[in-house]
Design brief:
Elements (H helix, E strand, L loop, with lengths): L6 E5 L8 H13 L1 H4 L11 H15 L19 E6 L9 E9 L9 E9 L8 H12 L2 E6 L4 H6 L3 E5 L6 E4 L13 H19 L1 H29 L1
Parallel strand pairs: 4-5
Antiparallel strand pairs: 1-2, 2-3, 3-4, 5-7, 6-7
């Protein structure tokens, strides 16, 4: 059965504060998919799965900051915003249960004709996959922004190619592919990470170290670093094949 539910677009410039239930639902979906959304390869049974979960949820929270507090660009009067595309459960419309989302940040200083958005995450609940939820959400995003840029793993490139995106190069960390469906315009805004985020990551690492013990922790960290390097080489080989 094809998806027939409601898709809604929320912009931080249009609402005062994001509904807490919506925020929690989006975080829960991101948490469930943290290992797939992380900037580095990691499995659900890895001792660092919790680290991926914390980093992904913190990044999402940072991206949605304009929904809760006014944020200006480079100490100027230019106010930045962020957006959410939400898909709701079509099996129980009255419950308005979020079963998918796209978070994005519009680029600054663009005109309507060349409006560009940077996509953070695209998530669909496993219970609703294969029914066109992602297609419906991307259509809603395309209706507002003619160009979108996003990052994905090498393995997901065919899916995004199906939606009209093309590889543009490696991400800054080199472990994923940057994709776009046009020529990006404007200035990209990224939320400041801040000391709180750094401290949170260190606290999680410390907790994992205490649970594993020092020797096992360093072995697991070595395996993670080795996997990251393999992923970078995979990205290089993939992009070489695209030339």
């Amino acid at each position: 059965m094809r998806y027939s539910g409601e898709v809604e677009t929320l912009m931080s410039s249009d609402i005062q504060v994001l509904d807490q239930d919506i925020f929690e639902a989006v975080l829960c979906l991101a948490k469930d998919e943290a290992c797939n959304l992380a900037a580095y390869p990691i499995s659900v049974d890895s001792p660092f799965a919790l680290l991926a979960e914390v980093q992904v949820c913190q990044q999402l929270t940072d991206n949605l900051q304009p929904f809760f507090n006014a944020v200006t660009y480079k100490r100027s009067e230019l106010r930045v915003e962020s957006g959410l595309i939400l898909a709701f459960d079509d099996h129980d419309p009255g419950a308005r249960r979020v079963i998918g989302f796209i978070d994005f940040i519009p680029r600054l200083r663009t005109q309507i004709a060349d409006s560009t958005a940077s996509v953070g995450s695209i998530v669909v609940a496993q219970s609703h996959r294969g029914r066109g939820v992602m297609t419906a959400m991307l259509a809603a995003l395309q209706a507002r922004y003619c160009v979108q840029v996003l990052d994905c793993s090498v393995e997901l490139v065919p899916i995004y190619r199906h939606f009209g995106y093309s590889p543009a190069g490696p991400t800054s960390g080199g472990t994923n592919i940057s994709m776009s469906n046009g020529v990006p315009k404007g200035e990209a805004w990224e939320p400041p990470k801040g000391l709180h985020r750094s401290q949170l990551i260190e606290d999680v690492k410390r907790s994992i170290r205490e649970q594993l013990g020092s020797d096992e922790y360093h072995k697991a960290m070595g395996d993670l670093i080795a996997d990251e390097e393999k992923q970078r080489l995979k990205v290089v080989e993939f992009l070489r094949g695209c030339r």
